[in-house]
């Protein structure tokens, strides 16, 4: 049996630990203990023992999501996620919710680009009930045809309603587009990475119960799934419970997203993305392709972005007062990431902010890295990561984030890697991922600023007044 202390080095090598014919192994090098077992049908089970935890947390993770969808079924992963809660072989839709409510727990589902996650959390001592609930929802849903219309309506409500012909007309004219989608289309042309996770009007309306059954069959099997547990239960006991509930499920192919992205199309200068409305605020975003989950540059990129965020905050807010905040981050996926630096400002300052972004990057590319700021950035990244993992659910989510690649945790020990990063590492990351040729700048602008709207209103009023005056003169002449 594995010890359950918080020191990963305290876990005994598990060569002789076998539960029901299933070998248990330690994932070494992480900041907390993690035990892995693979059932004969391919289902991966990860147990993060926390003896002092007062809750049982379970996440069931599938390799699905918007990147696995065909263009005509955009939004299918998310719509299916909703439908799975609408009833199982054992429970009605109300009973699915009530089973967790009565036990004093909580649950939900989340769809991402490369994963769909179903999770629940119950008070400690209920691991068997937790796994049973996850098994019912994910592997024994009814997927009833009569539930589809309601699930579809809920999705439309979640996305703020249907686009409607006016929105589609504006988008056809280049107005009202989502700037994040426009950025992804430029960075990954022709790729599923640029699709909206929630889908669009046409694809959502076209999805049938038959197509959802087919999508479910492709993605929801043991070989394409992983179970994560965080809590006080002993790993051997938890794996035995998982084998009893999930061990007889059919195996299947472990899926990977398509390599469907062409070369980035960035162009020169700042691209404008216009949104309906009258206001004076613009959002400036510098974006580029970034390192993926297992890329050796991932942690150098994270520290670089924190370094740039600190410098830009000092410049744009503390010294010049041009913005309230600055965001910088890399959304890492299995085959690459999206590096983003963004801030909002008065539209008159758009060029100033965009130039500040570029100048800060290019100073690093030229070899100018302040040692004190580098240390601050390293400590901030590692410290915030540690703080973010205080809850069992956060730990389960962190573990899930590495399950889109094989092997899953090859680049996970950033608590060790980040303190060793040097200025040269930041220079390399900036040169590799944020050169002028690989980055682009976008500005989300209103259709009209307030001043432009007033000018337009005055012009309209003046035109109307002139037309009225002309009509009055013509009437007088006619008399």
Summarize the structure.
The protein is an alpha+beta fold and 479 residues long. The chain has 16 helices and 13 strands.
Topology-level CATH name of the largest domain: Cytochrome Bc1 Complex, Chain A, domain 1
Tally of separate domains: 3
Return the CATH class of the largest domain: Alpha Beta
| Overall average pLDDT | 90
Distance between the termini: 107 Å
| Sequence stretches where pLDDT stays below 50 over 5 or more residues | 1-15
How much of the sequence lies in strands comes to 15-25%
SSE pattern:
EEEEEHHEEHHHHHHEHEEHEEHHHHHEH
The CATH superfamily of the largest domain is known as Metalloenzyme, LuxS/M16 peptidase-like
Give the strand tally: 13
Form type: globular
Largest sheet: 8 strands, mixed
Radius of gyration (Å):
27 Å
How helical, in percent, are the residues? Answer: 40-55%
Helix count, DSSP H or I runs of 4 or more residues: 16
Folded structure, characterized:
The protein has 479 residues and is an alpha+beta fold. The chain has 16 helices and 13 strands. Strands 1-2-3-4-8-5-7-6 form an 8-stranded mixed beta sheet, with helices on both faces.
Jot down its keywords:
single chain, 479 residues, alpha+beta, Cytochrome Bc1 Complex, Chain A, domain 1, 3 domains, eight-stranded mixed beta sheet, five-stranded mixed beta sheet, 16 helices, disordered N terminus
